[in-house]
Amino acid sequence: MGTIRLAMAPIAWTNDDLPELGAENTFEQTISEMALAGFVGTEIGNKYPKNPSILENYLSIRGLSVASAWFSTFLTTKPYEVTAKAFIQHRDFLHAMGAKVIVVSEQGQSIQGQIATSVFDKKPKFTVADWEKLTTGLEKLGTLAAEKEMAIVYHHHMGTGVQTTEEITYLMEHTNPEMVSLLFDTGHLVFSGEDPLEIFHLYKERIKHIHFKDVRKEVAQNVKQQKESFLTGVKKGVFTVPGDGMIDFVPIMNKIIESNYSGWIVVEAEQDPSQANPFEYAVKARKYIKEISGL
């Protein structure tokens, strides 16, 4: 078995894309409850201190390490240099925090943050020129990450140009495995209608970061039928923690362990904290992962 560590994302306490969700929850409450629930890592949210030494002190006394943090690329809509400049600053911060991977997702043309736009009907489709900008830009960012002995992990995401199995496959086939790795997100795959086991089987050698979230089937179906946005789905509770929705995580976890995966598994289930108490759901997720894997 590889070395697997379990982390929690702060989005369950405060949603950076919908700041009204969890505005009352503090940074210190968030990381304290993560640790109390039994997690040893965290991804980084907007409320976290930006000074590495200050953040390290808050985390270390709670036994937490930084798994990674999201970075938005705009390779299809802005000059590469714009993304590269911001990426280097982000890379250096994560490197100072001891992270080994950098989560990247192309936000050029993305509709994931548009509250009134149907996430299925209006999803962007990249042109050949868009794909060329994205793939070459990602390889350059991968080279920048390698300067710090880090890797970029691409986050396929609802409402973006890399969401479906076909799009993930295109991205993987048109990028250098040495420069571009993959983030495996169960919730986004199932919400989109993809088969997570198929994606894992195809790209297990390139998966260097994992997000575990579950999907409430009826909410997901309703979002599609009612032509609602991604953020509307989040507010209605389309995502939940592993073991609380429609996904069978047992075969997924078995495949992860069999593959000798080494890295983080991050529970990242954005919900309305006024409807789904973050600490309660963190405990529920931790117990479920222990039950199905022994971790």
From TrEMBL:
Family annotation (Gene3D superfamilies): Divalent-metal-dependent TIM barrel enzymes
The protein's Enzyme Commission number: 4.2.1.44
Record pathway: Polyol metabolism; myo-inositol degradation into acetyl-CoA; acetyl-CoA from myo-inositol: step 2/7
Keywords annotated in UniProt: Cobalt, Lyase, Manganese
Record-level Gene Ontology MF annotations: manganese ion binding; myo-inosose-2 dehydratase activity
Domain spans labelled Xylose isomerase-like TIM barrel: 58-291
GO terms under biological process: inositol catabolic process
Top EC group: lyase
Catalysis: reaction(s): scyllo-inosose = 3D-3,5/4-trihydroxycyclohexane-1,2-dione + H2O
One Pfam family cited in the UniProt record for this chain: AP_endonuc_2
Cofactor(s) the record lists: glutathione; Co(2+); Mn(2+)
HAMAP family: IolE
Family that this chain belongs to: Belongs to the IolE/MocC family.
NCBIfam families named in the record: myo_inos_iolE
Protein's name according to its UniProt entry: Inosose dehydratase
